[in-house]
From TrEMBL:
This is Phytoene synthase. It comes from Litorimonas cladophorae. It holds the Pfam family SQS_PSY.
Length: 252
């Protein structure tokens, strides 16, 4: 069984604590596989932060596209701390290649400084990134990535944009009002809950972190909250309690 090295695992835990915490609810194999997937996603998500200009970022994304091509061609994959574990996991779990390509293309949008044209464009971005990632995670655990799974991922992405509105409001979210973003996140999450009313326990670790969405949005809409200056505070103990309760109920 392939696993992340300790350094990569700790970096992921710090960068993506909610997905990390949810993944720990799976069995040994599922946990290892989910963490490999999330480490790969983290490598994609951090490209704009670790490259000094868009062209260098595009080169980095192309590097990963070529690595994925090597993986699916059953060739020796280029060296990287997660490339070998990723190869073993993707081939064993038969994750469709087009989902991986879609995820890379979605994250590459982060290099584009142009704002979303409207809320629909932001929603499509969230489906292509957070939604696709959740579909892959469910597939890895042997489940059926339904429309409810895609909606749960989209809702997570919209919630993330709302949480970061202070940073993005004069950038990619110039044309989108905060209230509209929050309302969309609430509505899509409600749709996801209805679509995932009967979730197999084995795949729950892949979607469990979506149970945190109502807590984030409640804090983000409390009286006096200013999305331009205030940060949403959601402590780790409160999150763990919510995840545990959600797992017991089998509902996000």
């Amino acid at each position: 069984m392939s696993e992340l090295n300790i350094t990569t695992r700790e970096a992921l835990k710090k960068a993506d604590p909610d997905r990390f915490r949810a993944a720990l609810m799976s069995d040994t194999q599922g946990r290892a596989d989910l963490l490999i997937l999330y480490a790969f996603h983290y490598e994609l998500a951090k490209v704009p932060e670790v490259t000094s200009e868009p062209m260098l970022g595009q080169i980095r994304y192309e590097w990963w596209r070529e690595a994925v091509d090597e993986i699916h061609s059953h060739r020796e994959v280029r060296r990287h701390e997660i490339s070998t574990p990723l190869q073993e996991m993707l081939l064993r779990t038969a994750v469709p290649r087009f989902w991986i390509d879609r995820l890379i293309d979605g994250r590459a949008r982060d290099l584009d400084p142009q704002p979303f044209e409207d809320l629909s464009a932001a929603r499509e971005y969230c489906r292509q990134t957070s939604g696709t990632l959740m579909q892959i995670a469910v597939k890895i655990l042997g489940g059926d990535p339904t429309d409810g799974v895609l909606a749960a991922g989209e809702a997570w992405g919209l919630t993330g944009l709302a949480r970061s509105y202070g940073y993005y409001h004069d950038r990619i979210l110039q044309h989108i009002a905060y209230e509209d973003l929050v309302t969309a996140a609430q509505e899509v999450h409600a749709s996801a809950r209805a679509g995932l009313a009967k979730t197999e326990p084995s795949i729950f670790p892949a979607i469990a972190y979506a149970a945190l969405i109502p807590g984030f949005l409640k804090r983000a809409t409390k009286p006096g909250f200013d999305p331009l200056t205030d940060k949403v505070r959601y402590g780790p103990l409160s999150k763990q309690g919510r995840l545990t309760l959600s797992a017991l109920r089998g509902r996000i």
